[in-house]
Amino acid sequence: MWKKSLSGLAAVTTLASGTALAGVDKVYDPYVEQGEVELEARGVHGLDSGEYKTKVGIGYGVTSRWFVEGYLIGEKEDGDFEVEEGEIENKFQLAEQGQYWADFGLLVELEKAFDEDAWETKVGPLVQKQFGDVVATGNLLFEKKFGDDVAESDWETLGSAQLKYRLSEMIEPGIEYYGSEDTQALGPVLLGANPFGMEHVKWEAGLLFALNDETEDSIFRWQLEYEF
């Protein structure tokens, strides 16, 4: 009953498509640091199906308002793991931090399948607001697939949100929600920096649980970054 209720509420703002893992990725903050180089790896794993998706990328803060990152994307679905797609991601910080009641950014992505004429673009706002030691972040992305090998090319919507508590610089507990047309997931997450004294390293790990029957029952999400 509670799963159906939450799913119905979320469906008002989320319309997308995909597999049982679709829509679960990361929650983006709106901030950019000029000159920063970032090495990143992240993934989502279906704990029941064994399917997973992994991204490996390198990014650079071109200006104080523009960060660009390139990814290779590999997936395991019904077979072997294959690197199938490449992606260019651009994040724009739209105002100085603290200038308005909340901080705003914009994400623009372009993804291409290597073996098919199949493209995907995403664009949408990133919002973050801090209330004392509690930080709320929301992303609303509009997605469109196109190309000769794409069957459906309607615009779709993906939503994600994160609420975290700044317990310390080392670790921040929180909760995340991800939604697309078919999938809805909610669960706890831990975020941290400088683990075991390793400077410039950030990490995230979360366990998402399905809110509807179309979503994998449990999904493990992880992310590792090295910034310099």
From TrEMBL:
Cleavable signal peptide: 1-22
Keyword Signal belongs to the record: yes
Signal among keywords: yes
Assigned keywords, A-Z: Signal
Protein name as annotated: Outer membrane beta-barrel protein
